[in-house]
């Protein structure tokens, strides 16, 4: 029986140092089940590093990360493996396996980790592609034949393969044209609303932040300086936040 | 059945019942219970596959603890297998979020049924494709070879156009940095050849002829071939990897856009550097393999270094050394052209760079051996 606690991600006083440079000086927040949460911050504030620390790719200098009830940096490899099957990760450029077709890419986690009956394998992979907004003709293609947007969708399909409870997205709309990016926003929102997945994303896309995201966490100066809905965050009195969101006010004013 | 369900409430269950409807007709009801999750798919399939669902079936989800899209897919695919239109199936008793999941899958069920064809390649097709690929590859190499030779000729006419900085950097990589490994390998080859010849020569008391054998063999054949193989694996592969990576990051396109020629900037310095480096490396190879032979000659065959050198001076005609050294720049040209072309024409994906690097090594070594055979015949005919 999966652990259905309300809190799925718990970052507690995380400190990260690279040699003499401190990236995080005590970052803490929690993420509730079934929400769409965005992490923002300027370049070099360690957003991607924090993401990697949450999913167990990079050890923080100090602090604790709990993901789906498991202490990521203080558990056995078997416990971590169990957690790995319950979340999906989309890397920035997709990180699709370049020697496999899209179909085979999505099949990898299904074949490795789930005993999917043979006659359901192809329908299930097609379902994942459809859930990621890809047509059936994309299945036969090699990653090198896909456009940037399709590569990201294929990566989402692979991340969704095991029906994860949490989905991590690293800059899902970077490098996409605005139309494709908005389609991506709708897709991510529907994953949360229709499938009940918790989505945690790192982004720079103001449209994503202001339209589909439930909650924004702002990382600056090594700590969380604002946390709440878009309205709450824009109201915070901070230079960086003001200049970040001012682009949008300027566009609206024009 | 009921006892089993009571024992574990998460066990996915599907029961087909007939319930009398309001009218005289009775309707079939498929009652689902337990957790219909991806992890339970084999058990879900085991429950569903024996059932034959009638077209007017009502699906009752009130007993479900949860259902995910994989569970919903299994359910709807069973309807499809029984010839029931999943769009027409009636759902009842599903919780709001569960109904949404089932509806979402139902909207995509047509797409899920499309077969994926993994077309196996037939043997004849493969032979044909490979032949065409090899012919294209050969024609491409010859074209590129031509372009490189034209470029070389142009830079001979106009030496100022040669990019000296790039040339010296490449020379350092392909020549100076290669000296230790080439010296070591050719030294060992010299020892081994002298040892094997010595074993035979000793039987006939012809120890001294080992010097003749090693002298001619090493300078004319072994040293050039061994050096060419090492250079192909070291520098040829490096050329492909460097240029391939530059193509991936669009650096070669940037060079072109800035009004420069990638051939002049990237390819020619590598070709020229390797053509200068190779005769020098072969010479080092000659010296080291003879040194290796000399080292083992004293303990094994009682030939002192002095005797060795004297015999070498008498028996080794200088033309053999020249033959080896003349072959070297030709090998270098071929290796450099193959390495650069495979790098410059690599497809724009990460896997292709790895495959191109492998091709470079294989193609270079095969070409070098073929060329060497050609040289052997040529020099034979010329009486050298």
Provide tags for this entry.
heterodimer; A: 254 residues; alpha/beta; six-stranded mixed β-sheet; four-stranded antiparallel β-sheet; 39% helix; 25% strand; globular; B: 384 residues; Transcription Regulator spoIIAA; 2 domains; four-stranded mixed β-sheet; 4 strands; 71% helix; disordered N terminus
Please characterize this protein's 3D structure.
- The complex is a heterodimer of chains A (254) and B (384).
- Chain A has 254 residues and is an alpha/beta fold.
- In chain A, the strands form two sheets. In chain A, strands 6-7-8-3-9-10 form a six-stranded mixed sheet, with helices on both faces.
- In chain A, strand 7, helix 6 (178-195) and strand 8 (198-202) form a beta-alpha-beta unit.
- Chain A contains nine helices and ten strands.
- Chain B has 14 helices and four strands.
- In chain B, strands 1-2-3-4 form a four-stranded mixed sheet.
- In chain B, helix 11 crosses helix 13.
- The chains are: A alpha/beta (254), B alpha/beta (384).
- Chains A and B meet through helix 4 and helix 6 of A and helix 2, helix 3, helix 4 and helix 14 of B.
Radius of gyration of chain A: 18 Å
Arrangement of strands in the largest sheet of chain A? 6-7-8-3-9-10
Q: What is the assembly state of the chains in this entry?
A: heterodimer
Number of helices of chain B: 14
Largest sheet of chain B: 4 strands, mixed
Order of helices and strands of chain B: HEEHEHEHHHHHHHHHHH
End-to-end distance of chain B, in Å? 94 Å
**Broad shape of chain A:** globular
Which strand order does the major sheet of chain B show?
1-2-3-4
Number of discrete helical segments of chain A: 9
How many β-strand stretches of chain A?
10
Overall radius of gyration of chain B: 37 Å
């Amino acid at each position: 029986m999966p652990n259905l606690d309300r809190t799925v991600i718990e970052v507690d006083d995380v400190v990260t140092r690279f040699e003499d440079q401190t990236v995080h000086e005590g970052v803490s927040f929690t993420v509730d089940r079934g929400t769409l949460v965005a992490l923002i911050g300027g370049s070099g504030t360690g957003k991607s590093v924090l993401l990697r620390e949450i999913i167990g790719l990079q050890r923080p200098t100090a602090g604790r990360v709990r993901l789906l009830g498991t202490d990521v940096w203080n558990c056995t490899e078997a416990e971590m493996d169990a957690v790995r099957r319950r979340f999906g990760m989309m890397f920035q450029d997709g990180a699709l396996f370049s020697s496999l077709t899209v179909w085979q890419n999505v099949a990898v986690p299904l074949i490795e980790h789930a005993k999917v009956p043979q006659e359901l394998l192809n329908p299930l992979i097609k379902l994942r592609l459809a859930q990621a907004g890809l047509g059936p003709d994309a299945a036969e293609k090699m990653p090198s034949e896909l456009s940037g947007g399709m590569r990201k969708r294929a990566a989402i399909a692979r991340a969704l393969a095991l029906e994860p409870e949490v989905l991590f997205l690293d800059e899902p709309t970077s490098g996409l044209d605005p139309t494709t990016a908005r389609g991506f926003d709708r897709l991510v929102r529907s994953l949360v609303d229709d499938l009940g997945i918790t989505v945690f994303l790192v982004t720079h896309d103001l449209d994503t932040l202001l339209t589909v995201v439930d909650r924004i966490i702002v990382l600056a100066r090594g700590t969380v300086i604002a946390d709440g809905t878009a309205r709450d965050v824009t109201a915070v009195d901070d230079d960086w936040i003001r200049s970040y969101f001012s682009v949008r006010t300027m566009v609206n004013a024009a | 059945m009921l006892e089993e369900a009571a024992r574990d409430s998460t066990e996915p269950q599907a029961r087909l019942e007939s319930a009398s409807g309001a009218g005289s007709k009775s309707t079939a009801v498929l009652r689902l219970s337990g957790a219909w999750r991806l992890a339970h798919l084999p058990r879900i399939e085991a429950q569903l596959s024996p059932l034959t669902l009638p077209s007017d079936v009502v699906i009752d989800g009130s007993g479900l603890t949860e259902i995910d899209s994989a569970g919903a897919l299994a359910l709807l695919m069973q309807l499809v297998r029984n010839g029931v239109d999943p769009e027409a199936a009636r759902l009842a008793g599903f919780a709001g979020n569960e109904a949404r999941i089932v509806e979402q899958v139902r909207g995509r069920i047509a797409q899920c049924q499309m077969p994926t064809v993994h077309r196996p390649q037939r043997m004849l097709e493969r032979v044909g494709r490979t032949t065409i690929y090899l012919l294209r590859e050969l024609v491409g190499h010859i074209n590129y070879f031509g372009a490189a030779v034209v470029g070389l000729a142009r830079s001979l006419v106009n030496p100022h156009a040669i990019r000296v900085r790039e040339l010296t950097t490449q020379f350092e990589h392909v020549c100076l940095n290669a000296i230790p490994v080439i010296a070591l390998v050719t030294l060992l080859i010299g020892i081994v050849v002298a040892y094997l010849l010595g074993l035979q020569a000793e039987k006939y008391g012809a120890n001294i002829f080992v010097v003749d054998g090693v002298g001619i063999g090493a300078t004319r054949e072994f040293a050039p071939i061994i050096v060419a193989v090492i250079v192909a694996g070291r520098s040829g592969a490096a050329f492909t990897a460097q240029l391939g990576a530059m193509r991936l990051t669009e650096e070669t396109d940037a060079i072109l856009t800035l009004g420069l020629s990638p051939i002049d900037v990237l390819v020619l310095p590598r070709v020229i550097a390797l053509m200068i480096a190779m005769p020098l490396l072969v010479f080092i190879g000659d010296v080291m393999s003879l040194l290796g032979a000399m080292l083992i000659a004293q303990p094994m065959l009682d030939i002192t270094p002095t005797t060795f050198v004297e015999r070498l001076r008498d028996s080794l005609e200088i033309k053999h050394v020249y033959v080896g050294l003349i072959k070297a720049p030709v090998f270098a040209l071929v290796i450099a052209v193959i390495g650069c072309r495979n790098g410059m024409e690599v497809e724009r994906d990460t896997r292709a760079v790895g495959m191109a690097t492998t091709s470079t090594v294989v193609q270079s070594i095969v070409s070098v051996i073929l060329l060497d055979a050609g040289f052997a015949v040529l020099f034979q005919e010329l009486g050298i």
